[in-house]
Amino acid sequence: MTIRHRITLVVLLMFVALATIGGYATYQARRSAAQVRQVTQGVVPSALASSDLVAEVKDVQLATMTLVYAPDANMVAQAQAQLKTKQAQLRQALDLQAQAAASHAQRGLVAQARESMANYFSAIEETERMKASGQEALAQAFLFADVGEYRNELEGIVETMRIEKNRQKDDAIGSLNGMLATTTTAIGGATAAAIALLTLIGMLLYRQITRPLTRMQAEMSEIAEKQDFTRRVPVARMDEIGRSIVAFNDMIEKIEESALQLKQKTADIQAMLQNMQQGILTVVDGGLVHGEYSAYLEAIFETEDIADRDVMSLVFGQTSLDADARSQVEAAIHACIGEDAINFAFNEHLLVNEVAKTMPDGRVKTLDLSWSAITDECDTVVRLMLCVRDVTELRRLAAESTQQKRQLEMIGEILAVSQDKFHQFVESAKGFIHENERIIGQHEHADESALAELFRNMHTIKGNARTYGLRHLTSIVHEAEQRYDAMRRLGADEAWDREASIAELARVKQAVEHYATINEVSLGRKGPGALSHRAQSGRYMVVDRSHIDESVRLVESVGDSDTAGLVAMRDAVRRTLRLLDTESFEQALAGLIESLPSLAEELGKRAPKVAIDDNGYRLRRHASGALRDVFTHLLRNSVDHGIEPADERVAAGKPEAGAIEIDVGVDAGALQITLSDDGRGLAMRRIRAIAAERGWIEPHATLSDDAVARFIFRAGFSTAGAVTEVSGRGVGMDAVKAMLERELGRIELRFTDERDGADFRRFQTIVHLPEAWVVDSLGAPLEQGAKAARDDALA
Asked: 484 with 508: CB under 8 angstroms?
């Protein structure tokens, strides 16, 4: 082989080597470029898209919270529009992930994400409907419960998808780096073998291919390792590698923008949670507070020691709850977490909704507690969510409003009663209270008679208060009456509690004095009316003006020489003077009669018609109070026990409204007041049964109806079927009997039919009063009127 041939061969070999090296280099470069395009235009964008999914889910979360807490309809509409847009974007992004899925695991994650997204938006729609229907509190609770659960689930799936995509990206970049390293090594080895011939070509290849690829490899590795998305790979030329570098730089720029947006949105959500004026925490297994809670809790409980703390200590420590209630709450919490949601429904009533908590400085806060269960897909309670609100100021304002309302109601009740009648009621109530104070003070150990007297006095105060429509006082006196009733039923030896009785009586006394203070201070109605005050002073007496006018007319019409006229004038003036400081029976009982319609309505009956025939007799004013106390019980008994409901009366052929008659007369020089009604009569069969049950009638003993009827005057006797505020406590006729005996009077029953032994018998109640209580229509005292009647009969 000649030199030329050798040279030619060498040249040919050189060209072959160059062609081989050049072809191999081109092949490896194109493979590398293709791999780079696959990574930068396929794998990396897919990983970017998975990162965008996280941001999109955050956007949905922010829009949902805006929807629930939006202050106006405009923001609600914006949030709804944003949710629809984000839903479409999420579907599009999941479609892209499905197309770019490189493994069965990725396709499974996409399928899970689609299902979770459907549940998530379904829960959002349910929250939106609650918000639209005005159930804002429920919508908020649903937001933090079910919506939050599906959001967390979707975020978990998307986060897993992002990690899987990043792993695929890292693997692809690693594979690309390996290919680039192989290419670099191969080209470097070929270049080294032909360094003598191809130095310039090798240097050119190094400058054109190897150095940019090496720099790109180093930059990509460093960016992947440090997650520094502010760095960029420099571009030397716009060839395949240059364009790949540009695509890589664009990818990094998008990642940087997405990261900034994600950071900003996370900060916005945290700011919203931190500034929400409501305390929200979740209770996990063991009764501990989860580490994530709203910042406002620290302001409510005035402590930063909240995370991982026992909820019983945090919420219910230093509260008004007793040990039993706290034990129930703690048991309910442990019975719900980790169990089926139905356990929460069964135990929710044990979870206290409001507590008064004492703070370290002695202040007391009223906290409103709202409980809800957070369940998983199996309907198992995983956590309890507790919303805490400080309602101290609200409760204070409500209490002030209630107190002002009660004050106005009491003023209205007082104004509905005349000044004289109200003054008489207050003086009467104070008298009964003073009597009870005396009885309690004298008895270290009360006997049955003392308890009966205490009970009768309190029952009379209540009856008078109800008569005048003093509802708030009636309620307080009723509570005291219940205490006396309980002691009376249990027995004096076992139930007597002197200190409690004193405290209860003091409460009644304070209520009466409060009414009196309102009457005197707020209304300026001090003491009785002007006429009554003058009459009570002893210097003045009250008389009907018509009598005065008639007397003046007679005086002016009689001449000095008219003896008969002077006698008539003298008699008229005498009659007028006799009538001073008296009132008619209708006037004395007016307040009681006016109260009967409300009593009848309370008992479900028609208001009775009351007719009074005083036969010209008038009552001395000093006796009015005792008469009202007696007839308070008698009239109420007629309406409650005697007169039937309207339907029963109609069925019996009677008018719907009952009738009560009061007749005033004279018998043996004493006043006699007869009361009767057209009701069913005295329940003789019921009285016999009760008397036999209590051992008042010996077995097989035969008693007359008159003897049986007298049992109603025994202490504690009642025929009422149930205990109410009106009757059923065994007080009434015994109280009337005791009152009349104190006033030297008496009471009796008189049957008005001949139905001996019947279940019900018509009867009259006859009250005998001292003669000094009344005068006749001529102004003469009762004894003089009786004597005049006898004289007229003899004549």
From this structure: no
Domain limits of the chain? 47-272, 277-390, 407-537, 584-786
Are 595 and 471 a contacting pair, CB within 8 Å? no
CATH topology of domain 407-537: Four Helix Bundle (Hemerythrin (Met), subunit A) (1.20.120)
* H helices present in 558-609, as ranges: 563-578, 585-588, 590-602
Residues 440-486 have pLDDT tens digits of: 887 777 677 777 778 878 888 888 888 778 888 888 888 888 877 77
Placement of tokens 């998008």 in the chain:
254
* pLDDT at residue 654 in the model: 92
* pLDDT at position 543 over 60: no
**Cα 767 from chain centroid (whole Å):** 51
Tokens of 663: 């007749």
**Helix, strand or coil, per DSSP, at residue 214:** helix
**In this structure, CATH architecture of domain 277-390:** 2-Layer Sandwich (3.30)
Q: Kindly state the average pLDDT of the residues 147-151.
A: 71
Interatomic CA distance for residues 606 and 526, integer angstroms = 37
Residue with tokens 């990162």: 51
3-state class of 515 per DSSP? helix
Residues 675-727 pLDDT 10s: 999 999 999 999 998 888 888 888 788 889 999 999 988 876 765 544 444 44
Supply φ then ψ for residue 165, to 5 degrees.
Answer: -65, -40
**50-71, pLDDT tens digit by residue?**
666 777 777 777 777 777 777 7
Assign 661 a pLDDT band (cuts: 50, 70, 90). Answer: very high
786, amino acid identity: A
Q: What's the token pair of residue 50? A: 């998975």
Nearest CA to 631 out of 681, 576, 668, 677 is that of 677
CA triple 501-740-774, angle to 5 deg: 135
The most confident of 170-184, 345-359, 574-588, by mean pLDDT: 345-359
709 CB-side CA count, 13 A: 20
Outline where 383-470 has alpha helix (H).
392-415, 419-442, 448-467
Nearest to 454 by CA among 508, 523, 415: 508
